[in-house]
Automatic annotation (TrEMBL), chain A:
Protein known as: Dolichyl-phosphate-mannose--protein mannosyltransferase
Keyword Glycosyltransferase appears in the UniProt entry: yes
Family: Belongs to the glycosyltransferase 39 family.
Signal peptide bounds: none
InterPro entries given in the database record: ArnT-like_N, MIR_dom_sf, MIR_motif, PMT-like, PMT_4TMC
Residue ranges occupied by any MIR domain in the UniProt entry: 328-388, 414-471
From TrEMBL, chain B:
Its biological purpose: Transfers mannose from Dol-P-mannose to Ser or Thr residues on proteins.
InterPro entries tied to this protein: ArnT-like_N, MIR_dom_sf, MIR_motif, PMT-like, PMT_4TMC
Membrane topology: Multi-pass membrane protein
Keyword Thylakoid listed: no
Biased segments, Acidic residues type: 762-777
Name this polypeptide is given: Dolichyl-phosphate-mannose--protein mannosyltransferase
Keywords: Endoplasmic reticulum, Glycoprotein, Glycosyltransferase, Membrane, Repeat, Transferase, Transmembrane, Transmembrane helix
Length: 772, 877
């Protein structure tokens, strides 16, 4: 193709573009020139078409979301979790979850407003709401408000971004009639709320960007701060919100790059003002919000609950009625203690059994007395803790104690155990000291064998001395406490720590766990706790005294701990779920998720997007990327296919939507945790917007008329041409028809025969129930 | 052609020409361009006589550096365990499986063959003696040494081709030559030396290709393009890390092709030719090379070996002496069948007269998957509970969708499932499978399974409707629970003979729940029935390559060991720690780079990023720093290698598998080039004398550091003091106790093997006697030089002091050497462990002829079993 073909418009030469007009002049854009001519002579209906379209979207959205919202009156899918969490908020009992708290608190807020007391715990999918007296309909209705808001928000974003009424309406209707968004949008689930804030952030940012020629004005600040607040909310719902932050972040970088360009006429000072104000609103504000929501979360959940066990003992003891606080008291030398492994829960046990001479792999043992990990606490699980200093005084103390002599509190306190003390552990039942030595352990040949040593064997006494380290202790004066202290027993001579793992010993070991010395004493798996002191009962005064002495944790400390746990457990969500899927399969919608079934009535809820809608939006994305490459490639040869205004709009607005889709989708490929179809829902909305963007580009002319003005002030000059209207109608009709066709499995309200189920099985992966 | 040449010449002069090899395409195009921005750079290097001389010189030096003390240590080091062994397998032609592509291993096999290795020595564990076994290991190590040495002149050429002066090229090759890590890696039989070699050569060829920009589509231009492709294919055929070359080379290609669009002198058809030539040279050629090496691989490994069972039956039939199955084709009610889980690494549905023993199980008869074909794998197809099939007018075929029962032929029990948890899984999607039934009991509906054929063979009509042996792939769906018989691939405990678990899983994907019949026999067959036979169809070449690569991907993913020297990528670039390869007496091998080179090269890469960012900001304000006239040269050359470095480094952060510092070597080489370019940038404006002095100073420092660490590189004898002084970072955990003066540099009492065995048998029962001084002996240590090689992950190499002491408690009798030695073991963890996993045949699959399972006996006791609770549990389902 020759460059000089006459029908191709030449792009303006570099010289003209090179002389960019400064910001301050550019804003007197075409609001007068474009609008004025076309406004004349249009009917009232056309003038208000945008408002009518908007209202239509709201009404349709309401119908689709609230249609028989009381059905099914049973717990569906993850309502198990999020309903339960709402109940915990209302009971103020501490729970732990991998998601940040905002969305769950909002669900609970709805419950609180309608007077629900949180008595129901949503234990199993399929549990009946009615018989349990749960105001589930109100809860769902409350959450569905957020779902209801999604299509109108999509309309607003599109219209604000310079798309015609008809294109904006198209995007909003596609989103309205998407089965997955509807299913997700009417149950007690988080995604709705998260997506609401996500779209609200995008809308705010678009509004903010349009204020770029009036920097630092009231409007400018309003929308900038609104963007920051919404970003803070979205990331406080789910950490997926970070993708939205990345989206806005990248947009801001491009914007700053524009401001930095010297031809825009900004001074460096102005640039830094722009920079700092954005950093404040888009970084500081969200961070503060994120922290505040956690502060509220922790302020609400003050009582002990199912989440205790995830936390450090210090954290747990802050909770009202914590069982830990009731069982945490000082350990004294001479006490008989039971030591329990933190991860596997076994007690250190010893019995007169010995290690066999020769193991199956022909290695040979010391034949010493076994030290193993037993599931149950028996007489064999108690060890007397003995000091390495003041041994004579200790002997007297023990003797007096055994004689039944009353020992004063002050004297007793002399024998408390501290962090980094050197101790010996004498097995109460057999009277020998715990020892480790340089013999390979039965099952783990790199670790040291644990055994015991008779008291009279002084030659190897050094093997029996242990340094007691309390996890997290900051000074040597930290006291060893039962239950709440996690300890490491590090052999003073060999530097190995007592450790065990879930593999069981062969028959000779009574099915106990192997205990051995691990060379890396800092591993998390070397932590043990003292769960009991034999014969010691705690008195009510002691509990009170303990509570007084309890050192508090600041909010930040609690936050850091909770945040760390969330990340850790989120990454650990790797258990294979039968309905998990890989990100690659999402846009093609090859499989859904079974949410709920009712075998008696042959009803089911199956999360599935609108297949045609999703496939069409894939095509739109593809078309956009292809078109973009073509435009740019022609641009490289200074051929302008579409005119500079259209070109800029495609690059800027289309590019923004495409990147939004990309950033809400591709990071999932890098995640190791189990993923589900509903993780694609945020991206699917942007894909739908892309359909509308392509529609606008191909069918709506003249394109320019829409690109420059806002939806509330634009002259809605154009009725679409016949063909445009036809395409619009066809697209919407197909979307609605598909939606209605799949509605029975999206709403779960109607009984389906086997044929009806099978007719909906468009792809072999749609493993719907009741196919036979 | 002439216009093309003209345009190229024009480009060289005209600053607005398209950027070649520029990572910075915006600099000259679009609205923000400024005439001040310097033109894009490409070099035009042809090898002069001085170049040739210098090339020869650095080659010579590199050969000396790589080959010095090549015979030390004369024992199996680190992963030589694997790659030595594989070389032997190529020589013998026995099939094996490994998770790396074949080229590098075949090169070692060739080297071994040339050196006279007969493939007998099995490289079983680290520390085995080569000399004693008469293995020509020096010949085999010569190959990596040679390849390692050749990377040095390649570095010189690459630097020159990027447009740098000779002194910089010399410095770059010196940095590569005296890099301890690269030297260590290229002295041993490991895959990384070939990989680094091909990686370096690919990028050298690619740089050469750029120097031919003015001569598009000439012979020499094609030569370098195709060479790049071939070398890239070879790199990927050594290790998959070589695949990272594709984004590295690809990004620069895309950027170049993109810029070429703007070149008005290039007609669209011409541009398409450019595009097509890159597609052929950089995609098709490497792919062909990769496929070619796999073809060679399969041609060499023609005989069945112990890794057969890793592959599908269709694959195994292609091996000489491999699977050769021929069976009746049709399956009828009443047929005796053997069912195989249709997946690589699978086995047969199996049962035997032993009962489940796990906590939440039923205690009924075990159902497992077992790799060995025996009588206990035979099942009889029977009609569903309470139904009959009329076979009077001939056998009735089993069709898809029909419900059947499977009766275990020997014990007579039916395959059964119910609401009990299987042995190894506890989630409520999975149910136990058991064998259930006893004489006089008709069974129940929990014995019923629906046959669902997923696919048939397209050449066998009806195989997708009627069950045909070999050809029909089907699932068995439990009638009441709607769960499918599922191969969990987990190994059962000893009480189930470590066979593979099979359970019944709801909502499972078909992959692990697909079965086929491998043997079918209808006992009442009559001659007139015309029995048809079925056979596996051997895989085609593509099928084999596809299957092998799929398996490689799976093994790579599942490689999550707990190796003591594994290292995460965030620790590589700053050389947090190395890898212990081997320990001897007075000397040892520890893989550690030249710290100076690692740190400086990392700094150079970071500096490039900073420079680029500052330039971006300044350009926006229309200040155009020229970097002393070096801007285009520095940005284009360093930019390319920084991107290549990122392509070879960043993806590792996303990998969950176990990683080691040697994965960084390709990226390291790229960083070293960036370092050389950066030094050139700084010294470009200096007077010659200053510049040379700076270079000499850098070289001297690098040489000094190289020498300091050469002890652990070459396994030179060292003193403990010197060793400890060299621990610049606390995290470098090489074990100075191996050095002279260290406790592990001394010989232990040398016991004879027979004495050892005797002593072990004689160890008395009581403690006191166990402390007898004569007892300390080891039962498995014939090598006097070897010390404490314990492997946490496998039994290989688990011999040494630790156990020798355990025999008789050396520690207890107060032998000071041993006590200390062991104390040191615990602290410094000197274990040298090989990295690669051993791909043993999967669980439940002993070698043919070795059947550990007790003989099946029908015992009356085990048949009588009340299932009251069982049926009760079904009632609610």
């Amino acid at each position: 193709m020759s460059v000089d073909e006459p029908q191709l418009k030449r792009r303006p030469g570099k010289d003209t573009v090179g002389a960019l007009s400064p910001d301050k002049q550019l804003h007197q854009d075409s609001s007068n020139s474009v609008g004025a001519g076309s406004r004349a002579g249009v009917s009232e209906l056309v003038r208000n078409s945008s408002s009518y379209a908007f209202m239509a979207v709201v009404v349709l959205s309401f119908i689709t979301r609230y249609y028989r919202i009381w059905d099914p009156a049973q717990v569906v899918f993850d309502e198990v979790h999020f309903g339960k969490f709402a109940s915990y908020y209302l009971r103020r009992e501490y729970y732990f979850d991998v998601h940040p708290p905002l969305a769950k608190m909002l669900i609970a807020l709805g419950g609180w407003l309608i007077g629900y007391d949180g008595h129901f715990l949503f234990e199993k999918i399929g549990m009946d709401y009615m018989s349990n007296g749960v105001p589930y309909m109100m809860l769902r209705g409350w959450v569905a408000l957020f779902g209801l808001a999604l299509p109108p928000l999509v309309y607003m974003i599109m219209a604000e971004s310079g798309y015609s009424v008809i294109a904006s309406l198209l995007a909003a209707l596609l989103v309205t009639f998407d089965n997955a968004l509807v299913t997700q949008g009417r149950l007690i689930l988080l995604d709705n709320i998260m997506i609401f804030f996500m779209l609200a952030s995008v809308y705010s940012y678009v509004k903010f960007f349009k204020q770029r020629y009036h920097p630092f004005g009231v409007q400018w600040w309003t929308w900038l701060l609104s963007t920051g607040v919404m970003l803070g909310c979205v990331v406080s719902c789910k950490l997926v919100g970070l993708f939205t932050i990345a989206l806005v972040g990248v947009a801001v970088i491009f914007d700053l790059r524009r401001i930095l360009d010297i031809r825009r006429g900004n001074t460096m000072l102005e640039f830094w003002q722009h920079f700092v104000s954005r950093a404040f609103a888009l970084i500081a504000v969200p961070v503060v919000l994120y922290l505040s929501f956690f502060a509220i979360h922790l302020a609400i959940l003050t009582r002990t609950g199912p989440g205790d066990a995830y936390h450090t003992s210090q954290f747990q003891m802050q909770l009202i009625d914590s069982p830990l606080a009731k069982s945490s008291f000082d350990v004294h030398y001479g006490d008989q203690i039971a030591i329990r492994h933190r991860e596997t829960g076994v007690f250190v046990d010893s019995n007169s059994g010995r290690y066999p001479l020769r193991y199956e792999d022909q290695r040979v043992s010391s034949q010493g007395q076994q030290v193993t990990g037993a599931k149950d606490k028996t007489d064999n699980s108690f060890w007397i803790i003995k000091p390495m200093v003041n041994q004579e005084a200790f002997a007297q103390f023990v003797a007096r104690r055994q004689a039944g002599e009353e020992i004063s509190k002050d004297e007793l306190n002399k024998w408390v155990v501290h962090h980094t003390d050197l101790v010996q552990l004498q097995h109460a039942a057999t009277g020998s000291n715990m020892r480790t030595h340089d013999v390979a352990s039965p099952m783990t040949s790199t670790n040291m064998e644990f055994t015991t040593l008779a008291l009279n064997d002084t030659a190897h006494a050094a093997d029996t001395v242990w340094k007691l380290e309390i996890d997290g202790a900051k000074s040597n004066s930290t006291l060893l406490k039962t239950s709440s202290s996690f300890i490491r027993l590090v052999n003073n001579k060999h530097g190995v720590a007592m450790w065990t793992h879930p593999k069981k010993l062969p028959e000779w070991g009574h099915g106990h766990q192997e205990i051995n010395g691990k060379k890396d004493p800092t591993a998390k798996s070397t932590l043990w706790a003292i769960t009991e002191i034999r014969g010691r009962q705690i008195t009510a005064e002691e509990v009170e005294e303990m509570a007084k002495k309890q050192s508090g944790m600041s909010f930040l400390e609690k936050f850091v701990e909770l945040q760390g746990l969330m990340i850790k457990h989120n990454n650990a969500l790797t258990t294979v779920h039968p309905f998990q899927s890989t990100p690659l399969s999402w846009p093609f919608l090859t499989r859904g998720i079974s949410f709920w079934t009712d075998a008696a009535q042959r009803k089911q809820i199956y999360l599935l997007g609108n297949p045609i809608g999703w496939w069409v939006s894939n095509l739109a994305l593809l078309a956009f990327f292809a078109g973009l490459v073509m435009l740019e490639a022609y641009g490289m040869r200074d051929i302008d296919l579409v005119g500079s205004i259209v070109r800029r709009h495609i690059l800027r607005s289309g590019g923004f939507i495409a990147f939004a889709w990309f950033i809400h989708y591709f990071p999932f490929f890098m995640m190791g945790r189990s993923l589900f179809l509903h993780h694609y829902l945020p991206a699917s909305i942007f894909a739908y917007m892309m359909v509308a963007a392509c529609f606008q580009f191909i069918f709506v002319h003249p394109y320019q008329l829409f690109t420059l003005r806002s939806w509330s002030s634009r002259a809605r000059a154009l009725l679409p041409s016949y063909s445009t209207g036809l395409v619009f109608a066809v697209l919407v009709a197909i979307q609605v028809a598909t939606f209605v066709f799949f509605a029975p499995i999206s709403y779960g309200t109607s009984t389906l025969t086997a044929e009806q189920v099978n007719s909906r099985r468009w792809l072999p992966g749609y493993d719907l129930h009741f196919q036979k | 052609m002439t216009t093309e040449m003209d345009s190229a010449d024009q480009k060289a002069r005209h600053p607005k020409g398209p950027a070649t090899k520029s990572i910075e395409p915006t600099a000259t195009k679009g609205t923000e361009a400024s005439p001040v921005v310097t033109p894009p750079f490409y070099a035009n290097w042809t090898c002069t006589r001085t170049d040739t001389l210098l090339l020869l010189l650095v080659t010579g030096v590199a050969l000396i550096v790589r080959c010095w003390r090549l015979s030390v240590p004369n024992q199996v080091v680190f992963d030589e365990v694997h790659f030595g062994k594989f070389a032997g397998k190529y020589i013998n032609g026995t099939y094996f499986y490994d998770l790396h592509p074949p080229l590098a291993k075949m090169m070692f096999a060739a080297a071994g063959k040339l050196a006279g290795y007969d493939g007998v020595f099995d490289f079983k564990s680290i520390g085995l003696d080569y000399a004693a076994a008469g293995v020509p290991y020096v010949g085999m190590r010569l190959l990596p040494a040679l390849l390692g040495a050749l990377t040095v002149p390649a570095t010189f050429a690459a630097t020159r081709a990027c447009g740098y002066r000779m002194d910089t090229a010399l410095l770059a090759s010196l940095l590569v030559c005296f890099e301890n890590g690269l030297v260590t890696q290229s002295r041993l039989i490991l895959l990384d030396s070939p990989l680094v070699f091909f990686t370096v050569l690919t990028l050298t060829a690619w740089s050469m290709f750029w120097t031919k920009q003015g001569q598009s589509f000439t012979g020499v231009w094609w030569f370098w393009l195709i060479s790049t492709g071939v070398l890239m294919g070879c790199a990927a055929s050594c290790k998959w890390v070589g695949l990272f070359l594709f984004p590295a080379v690809g990004l620069s290609t895309i950027s170049d092709l993109w810029d070429k669009i703007a070149d008005r002198s290039l007609s669209p058809s011409r541009w398409c030719m450019h595009f097509a030539s890159r597609a052929v040279g950089l995609l098709a050629v490497p792919f062909a090379v990769y496929v070619f090496w796999f073809q060679v691989h399969f041609a060499l490994l023609h005989t069945s070996g112990d890794a057969n069972s890793m592959m599908t039956p269709e694959f195994q039939t292609t091996l000489r002496g491999g699977l050769d199955v021929s069976t009746d084709r049709d399956v009828f009610y009443g047929s005796e069948i053997r069912m195989r889980s249709s997946n690589a690494q699978s086995g047969y549905l199996h049962s035997h007269t032993h009962n489940w023993q796990h906590e939440k199980g039923s205690g009924q008869q075990q159902i497992t998957i077992y790799g060995h074909a025996d009588e206990n794998n035979i099942w009889v197809v029977e009609p569903a509970f309470n139904t009959t099939v009329d076979s009077s007018s001939g056998p009735v075929p089993v069709k898809s969708g029909e419900t059947v029962r499977l009766r275990h032929k020997i014990t007579g029990k039916f395959l059964h499932s119910h609401d009990k948890r299987p042995a190894l899984s506890s989630d409520d999607q999975k149910f136990e499978l058991s064998g259930y039934g006893f004489p006089g009991f008709a069974g129940d509906t929990n014995d019923d399974f629906r046959v669902e054929i997923l696919s048939g063979d397209k050449n066998e009509a009806g195989s997708d409707v009627r069950v045909q042996a070999i050809y029909s792939r089907f699932r068995l769906i439990h009638r009441n629970l709607q769960c499918a018989v599922y191969n969990s691939r987990k190994k059962l405990p000893k009480w189930a003979f470590e066979q593979t678990e099979v359970n019944c899983m709801r909502n499972c994907m078909p992959r692990m729940s697909t079965w086929h019949v491998e043997y079918a026999h209808y006992p009442n067959a009559t001659a007139e029935m015309g029995v048809k036979t079925a056979k596996y169809r051997p895989l085609s070449m593509w099928g084999k390559i596809w299957e092998y690569n799929k398996l490689m991907a799976e093994s790579n993913e599942s490689l999550t060991g707990d190796h003591p020297f594994a290292a995460r990528p965030q620790h590589w670039a700053w050389l947090r720690r190395g890898t212990a390869y081997w320990g001897g007496r007075g000397h040892f091998v520890y893989q550690l780079g030249n710290p100076l080179v690692w740190w400086a090269s990392l700094g150079a890469v970071v500096m490039f990023g900073l420079v680029r960012a500052v330039l971006f900001l300044m350009d926006k304000r229309q200040i155009f720093p020229s970097l002393g006239g070096q801007r285009p040269l520095y940005l284009s050359s360093a930019g390319f290698f920084v991107v290549a470095w990122a392509c070879h480094y960043v993806p590792f952060f996303l990998m969950g598998r176990e990683l080691f510092i040697h994965h960084y070597f390709p990226a390291l080489w790229m960083a070293i080039l960036v370092l050389a370019f950066t030094l050139d940038l700084f010294t470009a404006k200096m007077p010659a004398i200053v510049r040379v002095s700076v270079y000499v100073a850098v070289a001297a420092a690098v040489l000094h550091v190289f020498n300091t660490f050469s002890y652990i590189t070459y396994s030179r004898t060292w003193t403990k003091d010197a060793c400890q002084k060299t621990k610049w970072l606390k995290t470098w955990d090489f074990d100075c106790e191996h050095a002279i003066g260290g406790v592990r540099a001394t010989d232990p009492p040398p016991p004879s093997t027979t004495e050892a065995a005797k002593a072990v048998d004689d160890v008395p029962e009581d403690d006191e006697a166990a402390e007898d001084e004569d007892a300390p002996v080891d039962d498995a240590v014939p090598q006097p030089e070897q010390v404490a090689l314990t492997s946490p992950s496998s039994a290989i190499g688990s011999v040494g002091v630790e156990e020798s002491s355990s025999v008789g408690n050396i520690a207890d009798i107060g032998n000071p050497v041993s006590i200390q030695a062991n104390a040191v073991i615990e602290k410094s963890n000197p274990v040298a462990v090989h990295v690669e996993p051993n791909f043993e045949p999967p669980v439940g699959m002993p070698a043919v002829g070795n059947n550990p399972e007790p003989k099946a006996e029908v015992s009356v006791v085990s048949v009588v079993y009340s299932d009251v609770e069982d049926t009760g549990a079904h009632a609610e389902l």
